[in-house]
């Protein structure tokens, strides 16, 4: 496994003007937001404009376009006061092709700009630059009133002839299965040119770890004496528990492992699971096994795989399948989920619509497959200008997954049965 995955490590920003800023050779580090449409395999070129209001937390005053150039407008936006996706949406409505947010800090490495509820409605890319870089941009804009601060930014993927990608998901997250359901058709278009590996996000019980996983094993939200857990998906006293979530994850892993030459069974099962409200609500064996039968899987084979994956066939003991996924999650430092890692490079941008991820996978090929070329041609023919006359109610924002790493990566859920379930998380 790769030790640390850095999103868009091969992408770059290159200053085009003014010469005074180019000559400084400043190191422009930036982070790409995990929402919006990221134009992988393409280059954006534009000039910077400071919006009014500078924080872009409300409607932006009309921007006076520079008629001397046909370049795109990049908005240089102040950090704070509202979420990043709200800033990006207002920037998009104002006509910008890129939102450049200036952080209040110089160290932005590992900073994740998540979807806070509006991200699925954002159609442009957003990047975060450091405080010092933002200061250089502003200074150059003030000193060169007649020369626009212009730069290019290219969004690239590590390229190979055969593309490998990993999907990080959890049975407790409907967004995970929605993506698999919608991406299935795109995966089939690429056939043997791509390989998928599903991996599942798992928690563990801190108090159980302190007891060396030898304490009581009656935790409703864990297996293996608390080594592998999940939060209660009902958030209350409902039919499903964290334990049933973990076992469903294991069931899906066993399905994938048991049919290496027929992965359509896994795709079909997960897609049907996404469509079944009962299976997601109850997560019981009968519903899942019925789906297994419908996709042509041998239920007894999957049950045997699940049992044999526990040491001695005992659910109280360690599990080698779950152990491998959790170790991989920690080692690769996955910052959010659901997530897609393409050629060991984490994908940034909205997972839905799934065609955005398809574009990123296509950008990871050294030679474009026919399916990618055809999709690009169709997109070019069907491209239309977005109508901004639609009223967007930005105040109706809710917190939604993917979740920040600080909230879930290496998280610990010690969940004991009480009248009301409580959840506790802690970083290692």
> What's the average pLDDT?
85
Judging from the principal axes of the Cα atoms, what is the shape? Answer: elongated
Give the strand content: 15-25%
Rg (CA only): 24 Å
Residues in helices, as a percent range:
25-40%
Distance between the termini: 20 Å
Characterise this structure.
It is a single chain. By secondary structure, the chain is α/β, with parallel strands linked by helices. The protein is 33% helix and 16% strand. The protein has 14 helices and 15 strands. The strands form four sheets. The chain has a seven-stranded mixed sheet, sandwiched between helices. It has a four-stranded mixed sheet with strand order 9-8-13-14, with helices on both faces. It has a two-stranded antiparallel ribbon with strand order 10-11. Strand 10 and strand 11 form a beta hairpin. The longest helix has 17 residues. The radius of gyration is 24 Å and the shape is elongated. The N terminus and C terminus are likely disordered.
Please specify the SSE layout and strand pairing.
Blueprint lengths: L11 E6 L1 H4 L7 E3 L9 E8 L22 E7 L5 H10 L4 E5 L22 E5 L1 H13 L6 E6 L7 E7 L4 H17 L3 E7 L5 H5 L11 E2 L4 E2 L12 H17 L5 H12 L1 H6 L2 H10 L4 H10 L11 H13 L3 E2 L1 E4 L2 E2 L8 H9 L6 H13 L20 E2 H4 L20
Parallel strand pairs: 3-4, 4-5, 5-6, 8-9
Antiparallel strand pairs: 1-7, 2-6, 3-7, 8-13, 10-11, 12-15, 13-14
Helix pairs in contact: 4-7, 6-10, 7-9
């Amino acid at each position: 496994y790769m030790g640390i995955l850095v999103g868009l490590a091969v992408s770059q920003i290159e200053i085009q003007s003014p010469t005074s800023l180019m000559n400084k050779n400043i190191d422009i580090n930036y982070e790409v937001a995990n929402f919006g449409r990221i134009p992988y395999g393409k280059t954006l070129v534009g000039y910077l404009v400071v919006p009014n209001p500078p924080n872009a937390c409300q409607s932006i005053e009309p921007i006076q376009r520079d008629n001397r150039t046909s370049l795109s407008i990049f908005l240089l936006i102040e950090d704070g006061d509202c979420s990043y996706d709200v800033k990006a949406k207002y920037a998009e409505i104002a006509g910008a092709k890129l939102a450049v947010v200036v952080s209040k800090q110089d160290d932005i490495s590992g900073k994740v700009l998540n979807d806070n509820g509006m991200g699925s409605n954002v159609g442009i890319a957003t990047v975060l630059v450091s405080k010092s870089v933002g200061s250089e941009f502003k200074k150059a804009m003030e000193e060169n009133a007649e020369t626009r601060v212009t730069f290019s930014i290219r969004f690239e993927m590590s390229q190979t002839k055969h593309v490998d990608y990993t999907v990080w998901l959890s049975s407790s997250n409907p967004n995970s299965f929605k993506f698999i359901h919608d991406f299935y058709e795109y995966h089939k278009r690429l056939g043997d040119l791509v390989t998928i590996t599903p991996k599942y996000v798992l928690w563990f019980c801190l108090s159980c770890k302190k007891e060396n996983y030898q304490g009581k094993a009656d935790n409703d939200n864990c297996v293996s004496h608390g080594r592998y857990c999940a939060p209660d998906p009902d958030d209350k006293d409902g039919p499903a528990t964290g334990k049933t979530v973990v076992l469903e994850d294991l069931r899906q892993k066993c399905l994938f492992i048991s049919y290496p030459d027929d992965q359509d069974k896994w795709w079909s099962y997960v897609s049907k699971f996404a469509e079944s409200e009962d299976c997601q609500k109850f997560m019981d064996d009968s519903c899942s096994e019925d789906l297994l039968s419908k996709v042509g899987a041998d239920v007894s084979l999957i049950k045997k795989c699940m049992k044999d994956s526990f040491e001695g066939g005992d659910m109280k003991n360690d599990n080698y399948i779950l152990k491998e996924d959790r170790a991989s999650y920690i080692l690769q430092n996955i910052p959010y989920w659901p997530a897609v890692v393409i050629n060991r490079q984490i994908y940034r941008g909205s997972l839905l619509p799934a065609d955005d991820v398809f574009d990123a996978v296509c950008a990871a090929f050294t030679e474009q497959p026919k399916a990618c070329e055809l999709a690009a041609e169709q997109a070019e023919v069907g491209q239309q200008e977005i109508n901004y006359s639609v009223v967007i109610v930005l105040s109706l924002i809710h917190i939604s997954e993917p979740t920040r790493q600080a909230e879930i990566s290496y998280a610990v859920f010690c969940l004991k049965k009480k009248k009301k379930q409580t959840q506790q998380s802690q970083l290692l």
